[in-house]
């Protein structure tokens, strides 16, 4: 049991409450009083320029937040994580996704064993396999070249590679087709393979545990399609050329019928939502090639080293984490929007939803006591320009405080035509315009000065004062993607440390899994399922009736 004071009773916490009660200045006033904040509230890490000037903060707010970080020993927990201590308490595991991007000569020990050589051995095995698929040396069972790669996985075994494949499309082998199947809805696999030739298709079954029902069900159906589908190969030996596995569980992989030589290993100290830079990234590596994959790992490492070494006041993940605490715990914000101004980042926010919400969606502290403070926010968002024509209205003029991250790049990808490249300035003009409109709004006086009729003034007034962080980089390269992901990983870590929760377990997912297994026989066989509540019993009966119509 920890003997440290309850978070909300710490003097650093109550000092922030007092400060919040006194702080009413609008961003318009904060900038008028202190224009220098535009330059001062910028932190650089790697290729990222992170502008946090449009936040409801002053130097005093930042100082008080830093005191909270000091009092809750965020850096102490950070060091314990990097040292390989078992900070995932409820699963009694080390948390070492940072070892996945450690350089070859580094030493990171888990239970006295340096894991870095194992990490690099798997990376080498992945590189060799990826090169063989990309070059056509690895053929299918009939000797045909592999043209299609289908990743089957869910949660962290899907969202990371799917997001990164989308983000780095410009770097992918365009002659190969990549698909990502996650949903146990048979439609997902059906749509993914309906136009593919089994003889040219490689399935990558990605599952840390290799017990996840969605993944095992889809993988089994994929094997049936490969062998017995309309263009089936009708030879069990084909499985060895068309199925590989990414897992920590060699036994289950073998039970499934995948040759252990075709398994790419990772370890229990890599959380699912922190795993796409492990073997789980194999589909991505085949898509972008081993060199680009390693560049991405270098990007992760840049931010890891920054998080470890940068002083608190210039430490980007710490600052972003503290800003989230400021809004969630002292301003009552319930959600956080991530709004990339990049089509290639269309899956980035969905990826962050698991990273953040599965990590920090907790209501007991590390000792199991109920928390008396808000923990992780609802994370949401889609690419910014599309959002502008959908939900931005609520951010601008609704009643909720929604801090947002705006992410953009100075350069479009080289491949675009000149005409399409020219659209990039318009895209980015939208990002900058939104940041300004959200922060500064439009006063009633400004609206009146435009000659707007009095009865319309209230409707056309924008209160502003909506905080945003703007993250800018020159271009979305593999390294920059790694930097962005590591930035958010460590931001989530900082918040979990302050809230004193275990950010690395996910027991909340279990109950639904157990119940689904119990309910299924009631749907398929009409079996009596003891313990179903009356509402669910009625729903099951209605479902069975509809099924028969
Ligand atoms: O949803 C719970 C979860 O355990 C996630 O944490 C994980 O990413 C996902 O399921 C998939 O798990 P696995 O990789 O073991 O199939």
UniProtKB/TrEMBL annotation:
Look up the record and report any one GO term of the cellular component aspect. Answer: cytosol
SUPFAM superfamilies with a match to the protein in the record: SIS domain (SSF53697)
Q: Which Pfam families match?
A: PGI
Membrane-crossing residues? none
Active-site residues, as the UniProt record annotates them? 358, 389, 513
- Biological process per Gene Ontology, one example term: gluconeogenesis
Going by the entry's taxonomy, the superkingdom of the source organism is recorded as Bacteria
Q: Any idea where this protein resides?
A: Cytoplasm
Q: What is its EC number?
A: 5.3.1.9
Q: What pathway is it annotated to?
A: Carbohydrate biosynthesis; gluconeogenesis; Carbohydrate degradation; glycolysis; D-glyceraldehyde 3-phosphate and glycerone phosphate from D-glucose: step 2/4
Q: Which InterPro entries match?
A: G6P_Isomerase, G6P_Isomerase_C, Phosphoglucose_isomerase_CS, SIS_dom_sf, SIS_PGI_1, SIS_PGI_2
Q: Does the keyword Isomerase apply?
A: yes
- Give one GO term, molecular function aspect: carbohydrate derivative binding
Query: Which of UniProt's keywords are assigned here?
Result: Cytoplasm, Gluconeogenesis, Glycolysis, Isomerase
Q: Which reaction does it catalyse?
A: alpha-D-glucose 6-phosphate = beta-D-fructose 6-phosphate
**What family does the database annotate?**
Belongs to the GPI family.
Recorded hits in HAMAP family, A to Z, give: G6P_isomerase (MF_00473)
What is the annotated role of this protein in its UniProt record? Catalyzes the reversible isomerization of glucose-6-phosphate to fructose-6-phosphate.
Q: What is this protein called?
A: Glucose-6-phosphate isomerase
Q: Gene that codes for this?
A: pgi
């Amino acid at each position: 049991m920890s003997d440290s004071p309850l978070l909300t009773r710490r003097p650093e916490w109550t000092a922030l409450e007092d400060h919040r009660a006194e702080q009413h200045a609008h961003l318009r006033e904060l900038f008028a009083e202190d224009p220098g904040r535009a330059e001062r509230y910028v932190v650089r890490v790697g290729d990222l320029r992170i502008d946090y000037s449009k936040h409801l903060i002053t130097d005093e707010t930042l100082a008080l937040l830093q005191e909270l970080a000091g009092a809750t020993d965020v850096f102490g927990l950070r060091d314990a994580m990097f040292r390989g201590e078992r900070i995932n308490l409820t699963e009694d595991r080390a948390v070492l996704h940072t070892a996945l991007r450690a350089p070859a000569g580094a030493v990171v020990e888990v239970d006295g064993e340096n894991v870095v050589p194992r990490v690099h051995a798997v990376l080498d095995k992945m590189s060799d396999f990826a090169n063989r698929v990309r070059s056509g040396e690895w053929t299918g069972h009939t000797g045909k070249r592999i043209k299609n790669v289908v990743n089957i996985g869910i949660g962290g075994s899907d969202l990371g590679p799917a997001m990164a494949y989308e983000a780095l499309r410009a770097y992918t082998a365009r002659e190969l087709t990549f698909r990502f199947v996650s949903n146990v809805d048979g439609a997902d696999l059906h749509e993914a393979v309906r136009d593919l030739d089994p003889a040219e298709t490689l399935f990558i079954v990605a599952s840390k545990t290799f017990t996840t029902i969605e993944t095992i069900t889809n993988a089994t159906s994929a094997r049936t399609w490969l062998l017995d589908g309309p263009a089936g190969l009708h030879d069990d030996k084909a499985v060895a050329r068309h199925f590989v596995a990414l897992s920590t569980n060699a036994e289950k992989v073998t039970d499934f019928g995948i040759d252990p030589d075709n398994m790419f290993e990772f370890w229990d100290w890599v959380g699912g939502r922190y795993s796409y830079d492990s073997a789980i990234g194999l589909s991505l590596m085949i898509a972008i090639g081993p060199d680009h994959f390693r560049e991405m790992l270098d990007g992760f490492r840049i931010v890891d080293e920054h998080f470890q070494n940068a002083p608190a006041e210039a430490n980007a993940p710490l600052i972003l984490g503290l800003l989230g605490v400021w809004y969630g715990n002292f301003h009552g914000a319930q959600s956080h929007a991530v709004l990339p101004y990049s089509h290639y980042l269309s899956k980035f926010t969905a990826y962050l939803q698991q990273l953040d919400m599965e990590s920090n969606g907790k209501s007991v502290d590390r000792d199991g006591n109920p928390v008396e403070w808000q923990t992780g926010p609802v994370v949401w968002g889609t690419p910014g320009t599309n959002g502008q024509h959908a939900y931005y209205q609520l951010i601008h003029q609704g009643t909720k405080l929604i801090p947002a991250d705006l992410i953009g790049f100075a350069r479009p990808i080289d491949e675009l035509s000149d005409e399409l490249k020219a659209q990039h300035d318009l895209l980015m003009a939208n990002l900058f315009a939104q940041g300004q409109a959200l922060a500064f709004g439009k006063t009633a006086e400004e609206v009146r000065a435009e000659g707007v009729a009095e009865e319309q003034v209230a409707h056309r007034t924008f209160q502003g004062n909506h905080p945003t962080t703007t993250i800018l980089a020159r271009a979305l390269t593999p390294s920059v993607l790694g930097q962005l992901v590591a930035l958010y990983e460590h931001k989530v870590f900082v918040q979990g440390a302050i809230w004193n929760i275990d950010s690395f377990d996910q027991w909340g997912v279990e109950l639904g899994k157990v119940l689904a297994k119990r309910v299924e026989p009631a749907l398929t066989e009409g079996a009596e399922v003891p313990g179903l509540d009356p509402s669910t019993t009625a729903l099951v009966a209605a479902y069975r009736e509809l099924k028969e119509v």
